[in-house]
Amino acid sequence: MLRSRSFVVVSLLMLVSVLLSACGGTPASAGNAGTGSVQINGAGATFPLPVYTEWTYAYQYVDPSVVVNYQGIGSGGGKKGIVDGTIDFAGSDSLLTDEEYAAGGDLQMYPVLAGAVVPIYNLEGVTSTIVLDRATLADIYLGKLKTWNDPAIAALNPNVKLPGAGISVIHRSDGSGTTEIFTRALAAFSDEWKNGPGAGASVEWPVDKAGSGVGGKGNAGVAAAVQNTPDSIGYVELSYAVQNKIQFARMVNKAGQTVTAGAASLQAAMADFAGGFDAKLTANIVDGAGAASWPMAGYTYIILHTGSMKDCAKAQKLLQYLRWTLTDAGAAKRAADLGYSVLPDSVRTIVLAKLGEVTCNGRPVVSGE
């Protein structure tokens, strides 16, 4: 239904664009930038790409003088682009390293949304939603559980007729913030994972050595690989499962409660770590202790240069756009409809204050608040 809604929204926007064009009032867009328009280029994480795409379409009607382009190339690519200065902002779910901070000179991360990483699966004939717990999911990716009817999985799903087929395990093939969130969670779930592959934007997957692992590029690539591979499991940001109508598992969380990924369980995960931001405005929100918390949650961030921007007109428009994404009710609804969770007021206040510290040519950037 959400996928259909997105198609309808895009179709209506295209129709309005045509009508406005006929009246001489065409909004700026990537393919039709008006005279004097400001083009803002971003790239990075695919985790937030669905909502960034909707925001881009919507914002051309908020400020027709601005063209916002965002390319989903993975968190690693986004971080490289902002460090190298080839883009105006980066999207990342992966945290900047000390080396990246040093190379970038004046970089700052700003949380924008929280999202859920979910285990998606392709089991022909299984219509019920399966349940996994923390240890079982880690053992699947460790290659210790090889068939779907393994007793550990069957015990969690007593009313589901699970096949005896081997499990094909799908993972990201590129450097990925989604992978960083997922492997941080696996490291919290399992000491064997923590002391083995560990957590990071890319890891050595034990299932590759066992011959049951398959890589996919981007969230979209993993989603497609699961859809096209019988008896498979993978992990993606929730909106990719919803938009593509792929089944995703419920999880038994740290508190022993079975939960479903969504706005409520993401809000609970954020609440578990309230006040947990470090000096760089980043926080790890996996495996919270709350009864309602989704265990594989993470913030997605925007990364900016805070003092070295030279085009002050562009800097102003960029901050106005970011403020809109954080405060506009319509922007928040678009995010929630896709399965993301907006920031709690306490966090949003901190982020807006930090954005207010951005300067251009030594002067504060006026963002129009």
Walk me through the structure:
With 369 residues, this protein is of the alpha/beta class. It folds into 2 domains: 2-113 and 299-364, 3-Layer(aba) Sandwich (D-Maltodextrin-Binding Protein, domain 2), CATH 3.40.190; 116-272, D-Maltodextrin-Binding Protein, domain 2 (3-Layer(aba) Sandwich), CATH 3.40.190. It has 15 helices and 14 strands. Strands 1, 2, 3, 4, 6, 7, 8, 11 and 12 form a 9-stranded mixed beta sheet that branches. Strands 5-9-10 form a 3-stranded mixed beta sheet. Strands 13-14 form a two-stranded antiparallel ribbon. A hairpin with a 5-residue loop joins strand 9 and strand 10. 46% of the residues are buried. Mean pLDDT is 89; it is low at 1-36.
- The radius of gyration is 21 Å
Please give the largest β-sheet.
Answer: 9 strands, mixed
Percent in helix? 40-55%
Number of strands: 14
**In CATH terms, what is the fold-level topology of the largest domain?**
D-Maltodextrin-Binding Protein, domain 2
Global morphology: elongated
Assigned CATH class of the largest domain? Alpha Beta
* Class per helix and strand makeup: alpha/beta
Number of helices: 15
